[in-house]
Amino acid sequence: MNLSHIGFSQIELLVALVDTGSFSQAASDIGVSQSAVSHGLARLETELGVTLVERGRRGISLTEAGREVLGHAREVLRRLDAIRQAAAAASLLASFVLALRRLFSRSLRRGS
Amino acid sequence: MNLSHIGFSQIELLVALVDTGSFSQAASDIGVSQSAVSHGLARLETELGVTLVERGRRGISLTEAGREVLGHAREVLRRLDAIRQAAAAASLLASFVLALRRLFSRSLRRGS
DNA sequence: AGGTGTTACGTCTGCCGTAACTATC
DNA sequence: GATAGTTACGGCAGACGTAACACCT
Q1: Which residues of A touch B92 (CB under 8 A)?
Q2: Which of residues 86-105 of B touch strand D (CB under 7 A)?
Q3: Which helix (H) or strand (E) holds A88?
Q4: Taking CA atoms, what residue in B is nearest to A52?
Q5: Which of A8, A107, B83, B93 is the most exposed place for a label (fewest CB within 10 A)?
Q6: Closest CA to A15 of A26, A31, A5, A4
């Protein structure tokens, strides 16, 4: 109960919410129901103990806390992407090495 | 099935693993079983499609991919912390404002 | 009526602990 | 035998979808 059940999905959700300006748009952007967006944001706000998003008549707006959080949130997503890319690059490299090794040992078996 | 079931816990886990140098130490550091650490790292590696940690006789060591990922992982944790701190500060401020407002309206009711 | 977000409720996924197993010293 | 990691299995929390709700235009 103590530690963050904050998840990447909640961060993603917050960013999508701000970028699209509405719960339903954010929902279809991420590919979940708008109920999930509502749930997720509620969880995040409860977890942090602050309201992040002001639900207004014309769309939404960030609270002061929300504004502070958003920058960090974006950076988190960027880093997550960087991790995926680094991994993808490494995995690609690995398969090259493997392929080369196979070719090499085949020639060896044939006798140089 | 497509999107990241990468979680903050896995990131935290990877960092703890590198910092402590062993699965069991990382486990007690985070407060989970060493099985959970094994599970979590396995999930992360599967998800990314790369081996991150080389399990050796004397402790562990990072692969090249692992080294690249680690920096981003640390930054992610820093940002997560920053988010929590920003939220905590905002929440503290909010309760101050509330307390002041209560005091103020009490004096009003008393008449000036 | 048509759009918004919230909420109640049920389902189902997937995380993690226990414990048994393998391996290394 | 002890220490370190993996794996099979099962339970349980919690995330999310459906649907009914309230609100605003």
Answers
A1: none
A2: none
A3: helix A64-110
A4: B87
A5: A107
A6: A26
State how far the Cα of B104 lies from the Cα of B21, in Å rounded to an integer.
Answer: 56
CB within 8 Å: B7 and A4? no
Kindly list the structural domains of chain A, giving each domain's residue range(s) and its CATH number in brackets, ordered by start.
3-107 (1.10.10.10)
What global pTM score does this model have?
0.85
DSSP one-letter string for A27-47: HHHHTS-HHHHHHHHHHHHHH
Alpha helices, DSSP H only, in B1-112?
8-20, 23-30, 34-48, 64-110
Of B63, B69, B84, nearest to A83 by CB-CB distance is: B69
Looking up tokens 């919410």 gives A17
Q: For residue B62, which phi and psi values (nearest 5 degrees)?
A: -80, 145
pLDDT in tens, A59-110: 899 999 999 999 999 999 999 999 999 999 988 886 777 778 777 766 666 6
Residues B5-45 pLDDT 10s: 899 999 999 999 999 999 999 999 999 999 999 999 999 99
| CA A35/CA B69 separation, integer angstroms | 34
Q: Are A26 and A20 in contact (CB under 8 A)?
A: yes
Closest nucleotide to B1's CA, by C1' atom?
C13
Tell me how crowded residue A109 is: count the other CB atoms within 10 A of its CB.
8
